[in-house]
Amino acid sequence: MGRKVAFIAAMFGALALAGSAQARVEVQWWHAMSGVLGDRLNELVEKFNTSQDKYTVVAVAKGNYDEVTNGVIAAYRAKRPPEMVQIAERGYMTMLLSGAVIPVQDLIEQKGYKVDFSDFIKPVASFWSYKGRMSAMPFNSSTPIFWYNKDHFQKAGFDKPADTWQELESQLYAIKSKGISECGTVLPGDFYWSLLENYSAINNQPYGTLANGFDGLGTEFVYNKTKVVSQVARLKKWLDDGVMQIAGQGFSPEQLFTSGRCSTFVNSTASHGNIERNATISWSATFLPHESDINPPLNSTIGGGAIWVLKGHTPERYEAVAAFLNFVAQPETQVWWHGATGYVPATNRAYALARERGYYKDHPTREIAVLQLSRGTPNENSRGFRFGNFVQTMLAQRQEVEAVFAGQKQPQQAMDDAVKRGNEILRQFEKLNAGKTPETERP
Amino acid sequence: MSGKTRRPAQEAGLKRANFGDGPGLPTLLLLPQLLILLFFFFIPSLRALTQSVLLSDPFGTTVQFVWFDNFKTLFASSEYRQSIAVTFWFTVAQNVLTLGSALVLAFATDRIVRARSVYRTIILLPYAIAPAIAGILWAFLFNPAVGPLAQMLHRLGIAWDPNLNPTDALILVTLAASWKHICYDYIFLVVGLLAVPVSLMEAAAVDGAGPIRRFVSIALPMLGPTIFFLTVMNFIYGFFETFAIIDAVTKGGPAGATNILVYKVFVDGFVNLDLGSSAAQSVLLMSFALICTLLQFRYFDRKVNYGV
């Protein structure tokens, strides 16, 4: 009998201990980072968790961006959403008008943290904010840059890739005709982002009406009337002449570049981690090319993701969320993340800090993204792209471009069709979200 | 077959199970299956039906009732029509290829005496490979830049490129999907061949019929019901289960060349977050499959000889 009582007492004791260990408030953060980037993200969370003893952030990898979005939608509908989720830039309008999120600036201010939102670098701040208030915490912001194989260019007698598409073209053809490389460049998997959208911004071409969607839901695509058409024709020509290759499914364009098969490659600045790890060639990177008749070229725009906060949790959990977001916004955290991954430092202070420490002397290619993002004065064409159902319109456009590559359609016809399909998709989004304003309700 | 007259159960070789009186026990025994059907078929089907007449945002905060707009939009869209055509060619080609190869293999392994089980095991292996892995494997083998088989084709002067050429892409996914499914058909055909009476084959052999003649004239007609069943199963496989292979090999491209209906349902629902359209498509897909199956049973079933 006595032993039983002792046993029960011991059990209670254990429970009490477990209870005190759980005094930390635990919040979940679903994200889409894998590989090197996933490892870095876990390090970041670990840094936060050990920096204080009140909160624990649990980072959960939920697959790619699409899978994370689906996961969070399913969880929200089942009334069990995570507190935070990382969503790609293309999902901005969907999240903003979902009615499921709390604007991060409201939350952070309400919980008493001082984050200087005016210090975020311009393209980042303007993309992730609505009417001047930050909707989501910029986390992994990137922009496409131009990577090249130094040896290939040297052998062909060039210092580096040319600044304009026209000169670059002759360089790539020279590299091929001299037999230095079979493949001048490889089509990026997300070419719609780097070679069409960012191309439009850099070359000061309108992509859609209403400041590329920034001024309202009534926007329409117009890229079938701009240089984008000749850009598609250029890519098709390169493909036909064997100057450009397509890596294809199950094989990444990056591998064709890092293995030395292809001489150049347009991809996100966030590839730094992987390329540094995998490249067997001597590589470097520079700005994306621009058209020869555009002077000066404008800034590129951001891609990547941000952290959104979801509704439906207790106030004490939002304390933990605000503490974490505040941690993410700190210049120290930003500098570390920038260095560890290649993503853009989100704030001016973080960028200045990285400069002061001489970081770019050892890593010159890491600065290209920031310089390219802050080049010139952003205007309507280069502020960014904010379309509803953006993933869907992009897939329609992608299909039409593929029809050009397959020789089924002429570039003009394909872009006309892409714009027509895209506009129908935009109208559906408008119909569904007409009159909605984003949530300003506070937790 | 003894025509329409019913034979007593015992004579027909059937046993009457006895569950005692009342519906209690049979119902209890059926219950698990009914519950599974309820949760994994009836409720989802009902949800799909309701969702197909709604326009809603992904998070479900705004929902509009739009009657049959989702269906109208679908039929007006050329991509959907393209998807139907692609699905048709894909399932038919896959069916012919799968069944044809499985028949040849079944015939061949039935002939071989030595190490028969080794061959059978090898043929059955692809079944153990996850569709996505199988897809990656084929995508790699036929990748125009690095794939060894693609290089071979290039050396033969064939400009193979599934990333660019819609026909090549369709051929590639058809091959991959068939390869993955041959073993399924093969198992049934091997078992079917075992059921062919040895006496008939021997009699034919004595009469001087060669192995191929014996297979075509005796075994094949007796495999009728099996082949019929497999045809239905292959269509269902092509309609619903090849999704992972498409995703891994072509992602529906290039230019929608391999965007079969089930893959389009997935992309529109889970990537584009267009739930109404996706639901409408899955309702249509379900109806297609239902009609196909009904037609097959209605018209083709009569030509199949079940008697032994």
Topology:
The complex is a heterodimer of chains A (443) and B (308).
Chain A: H1 2-21, E1 25-31, H2 35-51, E2 55-61, H3 65-77, E3 84-88, H4 92-96, E4 101-102, H5 104-110, H6 122-128, E5 129-130, E6 133-134, E7 137-142, E8 144-149, H7 150-155, H8 165-177, E9 183-187, H9 191-202, H10 209-212, H11 228-240, E10 244-246, H12 253-258, E11 262-268, H13 272-278, E12 283-286, E13 303-310, H14 315-329, H15 331-341, H16 348-356, H17 359-362, H18 365-373, H19 390-405, H20 411-433
Parallel strand pairs in A: 1-2, 1-3, 9-10, 9-11
Antiparallel strand pairs in A: 3-13, 4-13, 5-6, 7-13, 8-11, 8-12
Chain B: H1 24-51, E1 54-56, E2 63-65, H2 69-76, H3 78-111, H4 116-124, H5 131-141, H6 148-155, H7 166-194, H8 198-206, H9 211-222, H10 224-241, H11 243-249, H12 261-271, H13 275-300
Antiparallel strand pairs in B: 1-2
Helix pairs in contact in B: 1-13, 2-13, 3-7, 3-10, 5-7, 5-11, 7-10, 8-9, 10-13, 12-13
What features would you describe in this structure?
The complex is a heterodimer of chains A (443) and B (308). Chain A is an alpha/beta fold and 443 residues long. Helices cover 49% and strands 14% of the residues of chain A. In chain A, the strands form three sheets. In chain A, strands 1, 2, 3, 4, 7 and 13 form a six-stranded mixed β-sheet that branches. In chain A, strand 1 (25-31), helix 2 and strand 2 (55-61) form a beta-alpha-beta unit. With 308 residues, chain B is mainly alpha-helical. Chain B is built from 13 helices and two strands; from the N terminus they run H-E-E-H-H-H-H-H-H-H-H-H-H-H-H. Chain B has helices at residues 24-51, 69-76, 78-111, 116-124, 131-141, 148-155, 166-194, 198-206, 211-222, 224-241, 243-249, 261-271, 275-300, and strands at residues 54-56, 63-65. In chain B, helix 3 (78-111) crosses helix 10 and helix 12 runs antiparallel to helix 13 (275-300). Chain B is globular, with a radius of gyration of 24 Å. The model of chain B has no long low-confidence stretch (mean pLDDT 86). Chains A and B meet through helix 3, helix 19 and helix 20 of A and helix 5 and helix 12 of B.
